[in-house]
Q: What sequence folds into this?
C-alpha cells in the first residue's frame, strides 16, 4: 500500500513541476532556517551543562544601591566565599576567580605577548569546575603561589608540546611554574581562560567586605533550595559587613542605611543560567541572551509555518486536479482514512526531499551564519543530540502539519459529485486559504518593520552626539609596558605629522576598558546621606582635548596651576546628584585606604564640570564620573588628522619597535571599540534582516504559485472576457485585486503588532529612537509592491494569452 | 439479491420539489443481467448510483442480500460496498498517474490483499483481457476501448458479486462496444456475476437477460 502511495506521490511531483519546485524550495529554505536556529539554540542552551556538579553550583551576585547609583554586580567581596563556607554547612565548597587585573604580558622567547584570557583562581577551582586535565593534579595544582595551569593550546603555543609540567612562564615579570595542563575549556562555557594563575599572587588587600572584585562560586549540598539559602545573606550583612562599614561611615543598622535611600543585597544565580540570564558587571565573557533565544526560536517556527502554509494553500487550490482521483479511489473501495493516509504520506515525502536539500543548504550556509552570529557551530552537530532528534521528527511533524488540512479537504470529496460534475474544478474562494495568506504576509511585514527599527536604532547609536569624539582616535595598547618611557613615546608620536594630540590613560568611554569606583562624600565625615559612589578615572592634562569632550563649567586641568594634583573634574550627572548649584571650588572627600586603618580623608577641589558623555552602552543612563590627575595609564590615545592612516600606523609601529623591541605592538581605533559594544545588536540586525528576506521570499513563492494556479483555472473566463473586449489592463487588475486586498489586511494586522514588539525591544535602551510613522508606510508599500510584482507577472501572462487558444480546448 | 421498495428520489430547487425517481419497486436476483434503458433525464444513472450505494434515496427501502442499506452506518455501508460491488464508468475514470497494472492493483490494495496474491490476481486478469503487453502503459497512451477494458478489469479484479456499469460503451465505437458486451455476457455466464448496466443502445441492452425501461422516474414495464 505504502509503495502505491510513494509511486503516486512521486509521479505527482514530476507531473506538477512548478508546484513541486515552489513547495520544495519554500520548505527547504524554511527547514534550513529551522535547522540553523536549532543548532544555535541547542548551543546556547548547552552552556556550562558539561560541569559535573553544575546543577549545585551558584555564583554570588551583588546588588548595591548607594546614593542614587545602582550597581548590579557579578562579583562580590573577597571574604564572602570563605565566610559562607565557614558559617553554613549547606555550602560544600567555594572558589573565587579574580579577573579584574586584566591582561598579562607574557614572555615567549625574547618577545612579549599580551594574553587576555587570564585570571587568578583559588585552588578549589577544579573541585567545582570539572575541567579535564591532561596532566597534573586538580587538587593541588593552584595551592602554592607562583603556580599556573595552562590550556593545551597555550602549552603548544609556548612550549610546542602539551607536556609542560614543571616549565616556567613569565607573566608581568613574575615567574610561574606550570603545575597542570588542562584541555582547552569548551567553547560553551561562560568563561574562557588560557592561563589560570594562583590566587596567592593577587596583589590585593584581602579581608575587605566593601570592595566587590571577585567572581565567587559556591557549591551547595544537593537538594538545598537556593532561594531559601539566599535569606542567610541578611545575617552575613549584619554580622560582618555592617561592622566594617561602620568604621568609616556612620551607620549602625541596615535600616538606617536603607532609610537613606540605599540598599545592599546578595543573591545566587545557578551556574547553568549565567550564560543566558545574567547581564551584570563584569561578566567573564560576553553572555548570550534568553531573549534572542526566544526571538530566534519564534522566527524559525514562523518561517517554517509560512512554508507549510504554501503547501496547504497550493494543495487545496489544486484540489480540482486531485478530486477525480479521490472519486475513483473511493469508488474502488478506499475509505476516507486511507485517503488521508495517502495525502499525508505525500506531504511527508515532500518534506523528506526538502529536508535533504535543507541539510545540504545548512552545511553550505553554516560558515556564513557562524560569522554573522559569532558562533563556532559545526555541521557535525547536525547529527547529534537534540538536533538529530528534531531532524528525525521533522518530516513527520512538518509533513502532518502541512498535509493535514489538504488531506482532510481532499478526502472529503463525494465520488458521485466529482466524477459527474464539474463543481470542484473552479478556483474557489476559500476563507481559510485567504486567512493563511494574510497570516504569512503579516509575519513578513512584522519582520520587515522589525529589521527597519533595529537598523534605525543602530544608526542612531552610531551618529548620536556622545559627548566625545570617537572618530580618528588611534589606541595603542600596552603602553604601560614601556614604564617611564611611556611619556617619551607619547612625545615622539606627537612629533609625527598628522597627530594633533595625545593622552595616556586606562579609562576610556567604551566598555571593555578599565573601570574603578570609589566613595566620596561632600563633608569630611562620611555618612550614608552625604556620600556617593562614582567612577574615578585617572587621566592626564590632554585627556579632555584628545577625546573631544566639552567643559560645561570651570576649566580643564592645566600645567600652569601647580595645585592641580588635588583638583578634580566631575561630569554633569555628578553635579546633579551632589546637588551643587555652583560646584566650582567645592570640596569632596574620599578615604584612600580602609584596610591600612588610615581613615583620614583626602580632599579634592572641583575645578571643572565636563559635559555629560556616554561611557557605557546607550542601554544605560549616564552615571556619575569624576576625574583626577594620575599616572600609569595602559593605553596611548592619539588624535590623528591624516588621510594616510596606514602610513601613520607604520610610523607609530616603527617608533614602538625602536623603543620597546620586545613588546608586541597592538593598536585599534576608538570607534571600533565603540562598535564592539553593539555587536549583539548588529548581529541581531543582520540575522533579522536575513530572516525577514527569507520569510518574504517564501511567502512570495506561495503567492506566485496561487496566482499561477488561479490564472490557469480562469483561462476560459479570461478568454471569454477578452472576446467581449476586455483589455490586458482590465484583466490584470481583475486577477491582482483579490490578492492586494489580502496584503492590505495583512499590513493592518502587522502594524500594531510590530509597533508593540519593537517598542518593547527599544525599552532596553535608555537612549532610543521613537518609531516613526514612515517605517510602517515604507514596509507596507514594500510588501504590497513585492506581492504585486509576484502576482501581476502571472496575471499579465494570462491576459496576453490568445483567447482562441484557450477557448478551443473545451 | 437486491430489493428496492417504494424508492423515491427528489431534489429541492427553491420551493419546487423535482422528482427524479418515483416509487421504484425492483427485485434483482443473483446471476441476473439487467439492462436499464430510457431517455436522457429519466433517472437511469440515479437509480444505478442508488443501487451502487454512491447515492441515497429520499424515501424507500433498499435491501441488499437482506441487509437494509439505508440504515447502515457509513463505515458498514462502505464495507458492504467494497465486498460486493464493482463499478464501470462511461468515462473510464482511470487514475492518470498510475500505469495499467497499478490501476488494476489499486482496489486490491484497499482490500488488504497480500503482495504475492495481488500479483497473481492482476497477472491473471491481464491475461484474460489480453492486455499483458499494455501493463506498463499509462491511461493516456491507450485507446478508448483499451481504457474501458482496463476499467472493467479493475472493476472485477476483486471478484465482486455485482457489477454496475453506467453506459460503459457510450464513448466507444460499435466494434469496441460489442467487444465489451461480449465480455459482460461471458462474465455473467461463466462467473455468475450479477450485472446491471445503463445504456442508450437497444442492441447493447439486448445482451441483458432483462430490460427495465425508465420514463420520468417511473418503471414502464418489466
A:
Amino acid at each position: 500500500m505504502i509503495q502505491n502511495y510513494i509511486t503516486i506521490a512521486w509521479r505527482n511531483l514530476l507531473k506538477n513541476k512548478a508546484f513541486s519546485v515552489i513547495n520544495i524550495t519554500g520548505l527547504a529554505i524554511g527547514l534550513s532556517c529551522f535547522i540553523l536556529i536549532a543548532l544555535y539554540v541547542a548551543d546556547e542552551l548547552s552552556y556550562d551543562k558539561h560541569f559535573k556538579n553544575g546543577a549545585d553550583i551558584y555564583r554570588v551576585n551583588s546588588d548595591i544601591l548607594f546614593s542614587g547609583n545602582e550597581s548590579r554586580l557579578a562579583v562580590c567581596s573577597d571574604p564572602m566565599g570563605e565566610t559562607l563556607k565557614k558559617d553554613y554547612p549547606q555550602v560544600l565548597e567555594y572558589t573565587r576567580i579574580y579577573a579584574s587585573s586584566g591582561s598579562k604580558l607574557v614572555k615567549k622567547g625574547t618577545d612579549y605577548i599580551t594574553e587576555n584570557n587570564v585570571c587568578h583562581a583559588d585552588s578549589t577551582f577544579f573541585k567545582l569546575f570539572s575541567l579535564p586535565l591532561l596532566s597534573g593534579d586538580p587538587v593541588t595544582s593552584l595551592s602554592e603561589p607562583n603556580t599556573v595551569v595552562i590550556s593545551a593550546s597555550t602549552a603548544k603555543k609556548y612550549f610546542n608540546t602539551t607536556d609542560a609540567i614543571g616549565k616556567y612562564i613569565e607573566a608581568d615579570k613574575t615567574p610561574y611554574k606550570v603545575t597542570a595542563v588542562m584541555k582547552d575549556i569548551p567553547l560553551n562555557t561562560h568563561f574562557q581562560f588560557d592561563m589560570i594563575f594562583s590566587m596567592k599572587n593577587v596583589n590585593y588587600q584581602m579581608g575587605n567586605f566593601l570592595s566587590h572584585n571577585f567572581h565567587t562560586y559556591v557549591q551547595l549540598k544537593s537538594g538545598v533550595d537556593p532561594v531559601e539559602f539566599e535569606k542567610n545573606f541578611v545575617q552575613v550583612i549584619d554580622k560582618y559587613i555592617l561592622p566594617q562599614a561602620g568604621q568609616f561611615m556612620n551607620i549602625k543598622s541596615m535600616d538606617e542605611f536603607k532609610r537613606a535611600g540605599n540598599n545592599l543585597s546578595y543573591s545566587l544565580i545557578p551556574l547553568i543560567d549565567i550564560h543566558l540570564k545574567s547581564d551584570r558587571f563584569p561578566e567573564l565573557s560576553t553572555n548570550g541572551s534568553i531573549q534572542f533565544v526566544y526571538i530566534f526560536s519564534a522566527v524559525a517556527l514562523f518561517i517554517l509555518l509560512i512554508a507549510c502554509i504554501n503547501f496547504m494553500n497550493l494543495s487545496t487550490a489544486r484540489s480540482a486536479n486531485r478530486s477525480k482521483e479521490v472519486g475513483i479511489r473511493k469508488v474502488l473501495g478506499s475509505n476516507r482514512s486511507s485517503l488521508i493516509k495517502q495525502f499525508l504520506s505525500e506531504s511527508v515525502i515532500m518534506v523528506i526531499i526538502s529536508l535533504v536539500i535543507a541539510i545540504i543548504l545548512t552545511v553550505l550556509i553554516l560558515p556564513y551564519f557562524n560569522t554573522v552570529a559569532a558562533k563556532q557551530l559545526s555541521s557535525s552537530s547536525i547529527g547529534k543530540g537534540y538536533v538529530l532528534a528534531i531532524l528525525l521528527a521533522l518530516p513527520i511533524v512538518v509533513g502532518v502539519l502541512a498535509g493535514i488540512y489538504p488531506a482532510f479537504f481532499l478526502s472529503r470529496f463525494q465520488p458521485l459529485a466529482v466524477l459527474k460534475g464539474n463543481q470542484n474544478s473552479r478556483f474557489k474562494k476559500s476563507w481559510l486559504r485567504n486567512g493563511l495568506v494574510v497570516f504569512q504576509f503579516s509575519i513578513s511585514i512584522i519582520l520587515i518593520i522589525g529589521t527597519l527599527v533595529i537598523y534605525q536604532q543602530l544608526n542612531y547609536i552610531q551618529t548620536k552626539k556622545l559627548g566625545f569624539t570617537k572618530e580618528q582616535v588611534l589606541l595603542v595598547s600596552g603602553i604601560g609596558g614601556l614604564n617611564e618611557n611611556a611619556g617619551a613615546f607619547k612625545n615622539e608620536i606627537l612629533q609625527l605629522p598628522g597627530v594633533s594630540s595625545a593622552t595616556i590613560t586606562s579609562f576610556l568611554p567604551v566598555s571593555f576598558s578599565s573601570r574603578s569606583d570609589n566613595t566620596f562624600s561632600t563633608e569630611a565625615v562620611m555618612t550614608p546621606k552625604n556620600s556617593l559612589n562614582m567612577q574615578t578615572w585617572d587621566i592626564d592634562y590632554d585627556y579632555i582635548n584628545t577625546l573631544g569632550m566639552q567643559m560645561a563649567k570651570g576649566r580643564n586641568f592645566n600645567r600652569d596651576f601647580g595645585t592641580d594634583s588635588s583638583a578634580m573634574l566631575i561630569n554633569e550627572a555628578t553635579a546633579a546628584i551632589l546637588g551643587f548649584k555652583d560646584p566650582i571650588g567645592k570640596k569632596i572627600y574620599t578615604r584612600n585606604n580602609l584596610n591600612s586603618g588610615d581613615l583620614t580623608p583626602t580632599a579634592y577641589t572641583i575645578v571643572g564640570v565636563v559635559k555629560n558623555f556616554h561611557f557605557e552602552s546607550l542601554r544605560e543612563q549616564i552615571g556619575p564620573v569624576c576625574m583626577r590627575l594620575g599616572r600609569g595609564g595602559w593605553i596611548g590615545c592619539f588624535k590623528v588628522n591624516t588621510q594616510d592612516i596606514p602610513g601613520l600606523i607604520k610610523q607609530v609601529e616603527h617608533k614602538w619597535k625602536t623603543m620597546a623591541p620586545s613588546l608586541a605592538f597592538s593598536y585599534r581605533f576608538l570607534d571600533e571599540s565603540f562598535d564592539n559594544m553593539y555587536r549583539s545588536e548588529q548581529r541581531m540586525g543582520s540575522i533579522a534582516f536575513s530572516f525577514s528576506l527569507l520569510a518574504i521570499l517564501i511567502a512570495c513563492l506561495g503567492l506566485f504559485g496561487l496566482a499561477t494556479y488561479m490564472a490557469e483555472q480562469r483561462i476560459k473566463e479570461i478568454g471569454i472576457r477578452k472576446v467581449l473586449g476586455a483589455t490586458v489592463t482590465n484583466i490584470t487588475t481583475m486577477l491582482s485585486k483579490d490578492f492586494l486586498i489580502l496584503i492590505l489586511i495583512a499590513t493592518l494586522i502587522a502594524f500594531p503588532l510590530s509597533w508593540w514588539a519593537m517598542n518593547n525591544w527599544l525599552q532596553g535602551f535608555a537612549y532610543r529612537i521613537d518609531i516613526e510613522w514612515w517605517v510602517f508606510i515604507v514596509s507596507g508599500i514594500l510588501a504590497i509592491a513585492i506581492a504585486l510584482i509576484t502576482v501581476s507577472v502571472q496575471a499579465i501572462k494570462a491576459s496576453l494569452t490568445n483567447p482562441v487558444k484557450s477557448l478551443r480546448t473545451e | 439479491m437486491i430489493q428496492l421498495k417504494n424508492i423515491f428520489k427528489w431534489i429541492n430547487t427553491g420551493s419546487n420539489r423535482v422528482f427524479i425517481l418515483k416509487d421504484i419497486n425492483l427485485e434483482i436476483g443473483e446471476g441476473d443481467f439487467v439492462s436499464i434503458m430510457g431517455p436522457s433525464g429519466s433517472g437511469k444513472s440515479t437509480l444505478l448510483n442508488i443501487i451502487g450505494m454512491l447515492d441515497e434515496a429520499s424515501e424507500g427501502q433498499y435491501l441488499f442480500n437482506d441487509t437494509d442499506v439505508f440504515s447502515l452506518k457509513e463505515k458498514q455501508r462502505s464495507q458492504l460496498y467494497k465486498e460486493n460491488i464493482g463499478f464501470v464508468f462511461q468515462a473510464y475514470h482511470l487514475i492518470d498517474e498510475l500505469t495499467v497494472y497499478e490501476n488494476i492493483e489499486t482496489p486490491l490494495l484497499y482490500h488488504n490483499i497480500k503482495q504475492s496474491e495481488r500479483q497473481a490476481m492482476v497477472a491473471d486478469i491481464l491475461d484474460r483481457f489480453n492486455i499483458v503487453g499494455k501493463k506498463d502503459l499509462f491511461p493516456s497512451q491507450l485507446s478508448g476501448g483499451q481504457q474501458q477494458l482496463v476499467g472493467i478489469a479493475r472493476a472485477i479484479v476483486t471478484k465482486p458479486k455485482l457489477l454496475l456499469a453506467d453506459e460503459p460503451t457510450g464513448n466507444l465505437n460499435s466494434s469496441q462496444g460489442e467487444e465489451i458486451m461480449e465480455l459482460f455476457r461471458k462474465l455473467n455466464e461463466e462467473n455468475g456475476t450479477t450485472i446491471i448496466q445503463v445504456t442508450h443502445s437497444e442492441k447493447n441492452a439486448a445482451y441483458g437477460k432483462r430490460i427495465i425501461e425508465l420514463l420520468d422516474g417511473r418503471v414502464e414495464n418489466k
The interface with chain A takes residues 49, 54-55, 75, 78, 81-82, 87, 89, 91, 93-98, 102, 105-107, 109-111, 154, 158 of chain B (CB under 8 Å). Strands of chain B lie at 2-13, 16-28, 33-37, 59-64, 67-68, 85-88, 162-166, 194-198, 210-215, 218-219. The radius of gyration of chain B is 18 Å.
